[in-house]
Amino acid sequence: MSVDTYLGLRAVALGRAVPRATRRHVHLAAEPLVVVGYHMPGDVGAPIGLIYGNHRNSARTAVVGEPRNGKLRFTQLADFAMDLNGYFGRYIQGLPSRSARRTASARQMPPAPQLILPNAATAQWLCDVMGRRLRTLDTEGEYAVHPALPNIGAHLSFFASQRVPGSSLVLPLTDLLSQHWTTGQLDALDADLAVQLAWIDNPAGMKEAQRALPAGPVPDGGWEEKDLGDAIKAYQRLSDSGSNITRASEPMKIAVEAALQPAWQACWDAVDLLHRLPAAESVQDRWEMDRYQWHRHAERVRANNAYFSRRPQELQVMRLLTRLERLTANLTRDMALDDPLIMANYIASGDALSGDITRRDAAGDRPSLSLRPDMPFRRPVGTELHWFAEPTRRPDGVTRPMVTVEVTSADETNVELRVVRGAVRQDRRRLLPQIGDRVVFSQFGRREFRRDTLPAELPWTHVGVEGTSR
Amino acid sequence: MIFTDARERLEHFRGDFPAKPMDARRIAGLLDAPGCPRRQVVDAASVPLKDLAKLIGCKPLAPSPFALQRGIRFEQNVISDAMTPLVPLVREHLGLDVRDVRQQLLSTPQARSQYPATRGVQAVTELRLRLTREAVAAMLDGEQHAINLLHHPYLELSLGDMPAYLEPDLLGYAAAQALSPIEIKSFPCIDGVADPVKTAEAARQTAVYVIALRRLVASFGHEPERVASRGLLVMARDFALTATASVLDLRPQVLRLNRLLNDFPHVTHLAPRVPTAISLPALPDKDANEQQQHDAAKQAKEAIGALDMRFGDGCPSCAMFDFCRGQARSENQVAQLGTEAANLCGDVGTVSHALALASGERAPLGSAESAVADELRRAALAVQLAGAPA
């Protein structure tokens, strides 16, 4: 969109990233779990090492001395699994009863954990891939592993299912930073956390950032050949000469820490940057939905009922797609209404209308308004737009009354609007904006809600073409 | 200098730089940087991209030894022991009743040992092309209900009237009435789902081989459709190295690549874009001193810099990316922001020009520039009204 391009041009000219948002559109938990890690290139089920923790200064490292050795892998990841179990365990408490959820005390929903990863690739690897790998491990028999591993597999698989628009349960930092700042480089290059941070907060450090090792989940080829290769050889040598697993893995621990420490610090730097922005208004509502999802999952885990299908059925996929569409539409709406700089995109593209009220007629059959637009408004007569009045406090919570208008005429300097909903009744006409008020009318109305009934059968639009393989 | 032959012009531009045939990945990669004259000339002149990129100062992509190792191990697993893992996959997914397995070795050492009298690169090339042709003829006329594996075959494909030679490591075909390509890759297919990007890349690569083989088959007088566009992609199942497979429908990729190869600027169209006063240097070898390295790099940079480029979103996957990005930045191009920005700004090519139009500092000339200026001014005003510093 033109605002994104314009901000990009400014970023190039300034040599520094430019804010794309004035609010923070995600929730930041007080005690998140930050994880950075590497896996063997070409082998997603073979982690090399991870650095993880709840605070910048309390990092722990887990490594696998010979990452290609499956048995060793799950032995050495047991501590990591237990630590994660401990963290998630702190958030497994009673879910409020159904009736309690409906009243205002629903805001007392217990807190939920939060996973913060450097980028989307790590989020997908840890949650989707490792979640799937770990949750199907046996705790008995020839290939038995520590029970904490399938436990965190279930939790990670839950987080995988929550990587949806508007959710703050899993935060991939490069994506978040891109939502809030525009850099002066190609979009694809923003996926490098070190470079993105240099653009946003430290342009002088750009050259160094470009030389930095990747933040994961795939390591640099040169590091792989030299440092990883040496560490594996050292493990083999030490373990052959009788050292225990921990001693033999010490060289790997040193190599992994050297490579991933900068990424670890970069994650916390990014979190600090995001903290500086005030939270957007609807973040709390969305985080409440997240907490609700978490506690439903926690309930299932407690009841030993947390099953995940390996491959969803077509009907499930259709419902998932419907859910994603609804969540995307709601997030787009929330971000625009919460943040004037995001709304600027729609004003510039001509979908939204901003300006000063020049006439207000609250009498007569239907109220009407005249507006002097900030820039020519080119949508046709009959276009419906919505406006939200100031929030009013009521016993059941805070509401923002919505007024819907219809464009009756529009030229370069004047737009005529007729009220069609929300301020037609006499007792609601006082809600209308006053002369001289600056207002924004947009295409964004109320949030979409989940339909109670979804089709029981797959609609024809979601059925594959005859003859294609599933 | 006047060149009578457009091809001569390209060869003059390549100068003493070595020539190297394009591989399938590079041909498939043509889809990523569409309409970039710099890449087109470099590709049409058969210049090895990695060597050139290194010379002009681009950071080389370090290959992953472990990933390579794993790929080789997986391939061995699949084709070892009379192709035991492969046979049931072909039966199940292609519905082919396999009764025979055959392998043909067509690499250079193999060809040389069979025909020791052959000397010289050109002669060996011709020999391998001939052996490959014979192997393909044998596949077409020979036992159907078989799996044929060709190791290191040599295929020819023409790119805008220039020949390109393809040297895949392994080409497999399940012979029914038609030959169905078999492609072996070691990336995982977890619960029946594989990474879409990697799968798409594998499909495009395989499509290149389908096209090359179809042209070869047509040259025998057979129907090109005797090489099927429905292939088998063999991948690692879940997290281990056992094989699983999925059918690939290559028709869209074959169509797209065919169109691209047919439209690839004919060498006579490319020729005007090729500078005549400058050419690439010889590639300095390991013993070259610093001065020689420096001079070669300087000449190469000038030669490549003289080719027009079209910078955009597809560029990070090109080996010359660092060089072109440096140029886009030093020339203050809008394109450094990507394809969307470049399209919006159209002929307004520099960031300072665009910003001057956005602020009203500069008046637009002509209707195209006015349209761009209008859109940028709206954006600037909307941003300012949102309270951000203009």
Q: What can you see in these coordinates?
A:
With about 475 residues, chain A is an alpha+beta fold. Chain A has 15 helices and 15 strands. Chain A folds into two domains: about 1-315, no CATH class; about 350-440, Beta Barrel (Elongation Factor Tu (Ef-tu), domain 3). In chain A, a hairpin with a 4-residue loop joins strand 13 and strand 14. Chain A is elongated and about 95 Å long. The model of chain A has no long low-confidence stretch (mean pLDDT about 90). Chain B is α+β, with helices and mostly antiparallel strands. Chain B has 16 helices and nine strands. In chain B, strands 1, 2, 5, 6, 7, 8 and 9 form a seven-stranded mixed β-sheet that branches. In chain B, strands 3-4 form a two-stranded antiparallel sheet. In chain B, helix 9 crosses helix 10 (about 250-265) and helix 15 packs across helix 16. The model of chain B has no long low-confidence stretch (mean pLDDT about 85). Classes of the chains: A alpha+beta (about 475), B alpha+beta (about 400). Chains A and B meet through helix 1, helix 5, helix 10 and helix 15 of A and helix 5, strand 6, strand 9, helix 14 and helix 15 of B.
